[in-house]
Amino acid sequence: MSSRKWKYTAVLACALMLVSILCFIVLSGRLSGVNPGSYVSASPDPGAEAFTPLQDSTEGIAGMALAAKNDSLSLYINEDTTVIAVKDHRSGEIWYSNPPEMEEDGIATAFEKESIASQVTVSFRNTLGVLDTYTNYKYSISNGQFELQGIKDGVRIEYTLGDAELGIDALPKFISKQRLQEKVLSKLDEVTASYVETRYLVQDANPEVVERADTQVERPLVLRKMLAAFEQAGYTPEDLAYDNEENGIGGPGGTADKPKFLIPVEYRLEGNALSVTVPLSQLEESEGHQIQTLDLLGYFGAAISGQDGYMLVPDGSGSLIHFDNGKVKEPQYVQPVYGQDPNDNSRTRAQIAEPARLPVFGLKSGDRAFFAVIEEGEGNASIAADISGKQNSFNHVFSRHAVRGDDELELYTGSKVQEIQLLSSEKYNGDIRVKYSFLSGDGASYSGMAQAYQTKLVEQGVLQPLAAQEDIPFYVDIVGAIDKQQSFLGVPYDATVPMTTFKEAQGIAAELQAQSISNIQMQYLGWFGAGLEHELPVKLNTSELGKDRELTALREQLNRTGGELYPDVAFQQVYDNGKGFNSASDAARFITKEAAELSPYDRSLNRMSLLQDEYYLLSPAKLPDVTAQFMEQYRKKDMPSLALRDLGSILHSDYRNNSLIFRNTARAIVEEQIGLLAEEYPNLMISGGNAYALQYAQHLVNIPESSSRFNLTDESVPFYQMVIHGYIDYAGEPVNLTTAANMRQQLLHSLELGSAPHFLWTANTSSELKYTRYDYMYSAQYSNWIEDAVSMYDEVNQVLSPLRTEKMQDRIVHQPGVVEVKYSNGASILINYNSETVVARGVSIPAQDYVIGGDPS
């Protein structure tokens, strides 16, 4: 072999070896994904039989048949209208799926009356993207297109929505002369046979086959006569299918281009509640028609105008919409459960709102109420509510369920922007399940609803009573490092700037402990990697802030007085394409199939800021692998506690081809990962507090403290706090980052909510945050706050520490700005937000002050 050939071969071999090594590195570093289908909960077909009413030993309900009964409830159904009714044996109250007073509505149009009479309403798009709406009353019930089936403890109804009639296509388009004579003409009288025969024309190309004369047959009178003749002759659907197949026509005929849906709905009694299920895996759609949303029991328990009551919606901490509030020009309340899906290709934000953390809603009318919990499919659901006096005379609240993901594609043609509506090709195939409970008397209130939900969560093992402790927590977030653009000799570069080193955090803890604050729960943000907005958490380098032993020393110092350290981690937003993350394979996808790359919102413009660093949404399918790699690294830190920044607050979909993940599927994946983390680190601090995270949280921070104050709503209530008080320690947003008027107002609000004080601090000067995306933390320098923080904590702790393990049982508004909060031990707190002294319940309350009352046991 020549020297030149040998050199060439050696170079080629080295190159191949290098490529192989690079491929191995890339492939070995790739994140693995889970199968999303294994996280979808779908009910099997219940094997239902024909519905047979039960014998009713009571006087029952007029016009309705008994479908199921237990010690607490009876379930009835109208076999003609499919209206269901639940009779509560405890109170004697009857709850209807559709208001019996619907005929008294003088406002509703014919379309609205169809909606009021419906149990299911679907919005769908055809192949052209045109949106349409079908109610099951107009397109199923009124035509008798439904089937009642008996199931255990209830009844199942299969609705066929759409035009089930074939029309002209019930007649064969082509048929052989022989079969026309044999199957039709021979069985008719001479006049009718002649009428039919002249409407079929001989084909020139094939004289043995005749073709339907559509120009004649399409006329309504002719069509009716032809259909009657074929029916008289005994021409069957099987005959039609045979003739269509013989002559090369696919399918039975012309329903293919008509919207048609099969939707099963199941009602069951479960203890003292009604469970309503729509098994979406059994839902059927005609070709070219895709359901986007499904409204379930839109008028269950609806209250006609003139009644006293309100609707509870889960906006933020909770919100009430009073009946007949007169806000008829305001839009309907609609809010997604668990907040907006961030996997949204739109650059603008529709609204700034507090997220709905709990999948619940309710309605109080007089001295009775219902309370509903979405038990399955809540990640895809929204809560909707509206008042009387707009489209109709009823106040109503219900759940709306996304069957497909939707998005907009913007096409730019010159100076014009055209928006094309897109739906995901696949539908969600899990179950929708909503459970309705019924309250009466003193329990018929939002306080009673909170107690009912709390009881449910306790029975499920989600909530565990708090152990007695001398003090409430003092929550403090410490900002470790941030990334900031700096320059050297005029050349810009990204630098990691320490805001609080481990030793400085020790100093802050020491100052608090010197002021007799012992129960310090410290969340350490930006403690590894590039800081607050760190890369994928599969490597945990802490060199910018200090050594691992200094982090351990900080934890030990907090532990000495009963506190704890919670290093913070975010999993779902990735700021660095690389270092274990590949956007092509690991990022979630928009419906447009682009990688889900987003930017923080500019509050002044309410749109994404292109001037700030972009980030990717991690595909939920890759989350388990990232979690496993993080846990492997975090074990080396020897930390017993952990803070989860986004797993309890953010939920997003992924529309990747062949691996589509709806939000509810993502919820199941995320909940599984929180559970795995909780097994290894039982002391979890979780931010946000979505319902699926409650079971695993020892501490909740950044929970909603108010509602979004939508125009249609009337009052913010601490429903969320009433559910968890006495079971989980919690706090709202950091006091020093809120826009509240003053510290005194915030202190009073903490007392009303039963919330511990929460601050976010840095040791370094806030001027370091200037010209960064962290400038919203301009008031974070701890030396400016520590004196006020200690004073606030001491006062709040004195009031709330004896109540920490008690249930928050009631909240009463005595007059504007004056509220009373009652606890299970008999204690109460009267709070006056006003700037002058007031008298409530015979007690004088000074301006912007409070009075401890009641008779605590």
Automatic annotation (TrEMBL):
<protein>
    <submittedName>
        <fullName>DUF5696 domain-containing protein</fullName>
    </submittedName>
</protein>
<dbReference type="InterPro" id="IPR043751">
    <property type="entry name" value="DUF5696"/>
</dbReference>
<dbReference type="Pfam" id="PF18952">
    <property type="entry name" value="DUF5696"/>
</dbReference>
